[in-house]
Amino acid sequence: MNRPDTTPVPTRRTGLRGLLERHATLSERHPLRVLILLSAPFLALTPFALSTPVDLSFAGIMDRDNPEIERYFRLSRRYQLGGELILLLSGPESRIDDVASALERDLAGSDLVRSAYFSMPTQWLTENAIWIAERPVFDAWVRLVRDPSDLDNARFLREEMEIPSNLDPTRLEGMRLIQVRLKENPLDVALGNASFFELAAQAEELIAQHPGFTAEFSGLPAIAAQDQTRTLGTIRRLSPFSLLLVLLVFSRIERRLVGLAVVVFPLLLAISATLGAMGLVLGKITVMETFFGVTIFGLGIDFTIHLIVRQQEELLRERRFASALVSTLRGTGRGVIAGALTTAGAFFVTAAAPDPVALHLGLSGGIGLLFCLILVVGMMPPLWALLDRHGLGAASPAPSTERVSLVMHTATIATRHPRICLLVSGLLMGAALAGAPRFRVETDLQKVFNRDVPAVATVERIQDLFELNTAPWVMGVDNLDQTRELEAQFKEEPLFSRTESIARFFPSDQPERQSILTDLRSLVSERLEQAETLQQAGAGPEIAAFRDAMELLRDAERRGPPGIEDLPPTLRERFVAPDGTLLFYAYAAKPTFDGEQAAVERRAAQAIHPDATALATLLEGMLAAERPWVKGVAAGILAFVVIVLAVDLRSFRYLTLALVPVILGTLSTFGILCWLGIGFNVMTSLVVPLIVGLGVDDGIHVAHRLKEKPEDSPAAAAGAVGRAILMTTATTCSSFLVLLFTNHAGLESMALVMLIGLPLCLLASITTLPALATLWPAERGAQ
Question: What is the rounded CA–CA span in Å between residue 419 and residue 677?
Fold first, then answer.
């Protein structure tokens, strides 16, 4: 229902305010035309979102300009390393080999698996034992030929006739390791991919047929899949509660479903158009683009709250809808635009960092916020006009007088005692910043991802029991001599506990062994004839064992030492790359998920072999404490915010007032997190542009109200916009609150940054800012 207009019609203005006034007038007179013209270009971008390739893999956001990361991916594809999994099988020793063999056959037959084996090829190792065994064993064999009566030597040899443990490190009493290599590298697989769980279900189904046995997976595919599944599953369960909280808060200012639709439509169009624009600019959509949806909804709803609250305020003054719409855009629209530009600029500056994560997050956040700004400020006025024409535009709930009174009361106390307020604010910020020496960067992945990942514990258990893991340092070499040299060098490096290479099957003294066996040929034949004669005469089992030993010597001498081409498939798959390069593996003494420790290991490994690489290099790239570009990006964000506010407010006083809340809130949050011992990690960096943008919005709106109505007191200005600031803080905090219950350290740290920082910015906006404005009044005639 239209009310009589009791206020004078505003004079014609130029500049941004004039543009907003004309947009309000056109929206009220021709709402459909405005909606069609405004939405057409954004609707045209939407189809590109559907046709753009989607890369949700970890590889899609890795910094390929980092030489270590580039080396890992290049060598991984060249050597076809794939995804390494180790299955730890536990159960009764009497049946464990049969169960392990069944698992090996079952897994090897999967379309997801390149190879699977649980033990060395026993027959091949036995046939070539004389060439492969360690030199003391070979010498004992030779002594057995020359002096069969040496009982001590015979006993020693009998004990060593089994395959040496160093040749098959996958066996312990009641335990076996089944080593699996997937066809795909897990870093190239989309997030949430179910391949690992298909494989795990296949193994569990077979294990269920054998009571008393258990199977546990370790390796990057297992860790990534379990982390994603548990985290995404928790978020899915908590998301409805998050949405409910946001809607409950939002309903305090807009209870109508049609009013909610007016808010949601521009935001959804902004998201689809942003995805299309990202496809055109970068050619693909990565996992980072999925984060900007939260950004758009969070900040987009903030834009709408400020506009809705101001519209309600104007309508309560007994104005007509047209006049209220003009006053809303002229008064609050400029503050919304300034706040949006500062936040979008923060994201665009972040995109300039030499990091794909920053590039994709920065571009999607910056473009998304600009689109969101244009659509919210552009589409809400004509949508409101359409509702008003159908009698639905003025039925908005009145402001909550209790909350307004609380904000006004707080601001009034601050302005009555401004010096005390500023002193307390300074002391509290100083106390918070006193924790700065405790600042640390979290480089341990285990303290960033989900805490409920069984594969991590399995990795540590396998390392302790077998000194093996799925992330060894890998090197390619051209010949056996190089592998032997590497073995000797890595044995001297305490950071590494064991090595694996083809050299252990081809000892350097094989030519000497061949010469010795040639000299013993006739004597071996003689001993064999004697053993056969004694066996026919009914000799005991010791003669049978002696005869078997002589047969092995005779057959080995006839065949000669094996060559690389004679290796069985399981060993070739492990130690020979498709291009013929010999692969050498060095295992760290202790598996780590720490980026800094990974850097230490890398430097040690590359000091021995310059091309050494491992999955650990990716940890180093993602979690390294040294990020030289961070300071430049932070300075760029600050400079951009200052420039935008200087152009917008055109006053050093108002510029300073607008910056006070975000400076106090951000610095105090930093200090509080340091006091709490929370390390800053790759995930907390994702919310830095958000807290800067949201925090500065609070100060911008108070400063704009002070400038718009200089006759009002600072307390009145803070109280007038306090309700909108309070609601925007409440909606954003509600959406982040549920992250505290995800059991995910990284997400919890993101939530803490927002839940501490935003209320502090709000508090500073209604206390410190009006207190400073009271002590620093505007110059007469400045308006």
Answer: 32
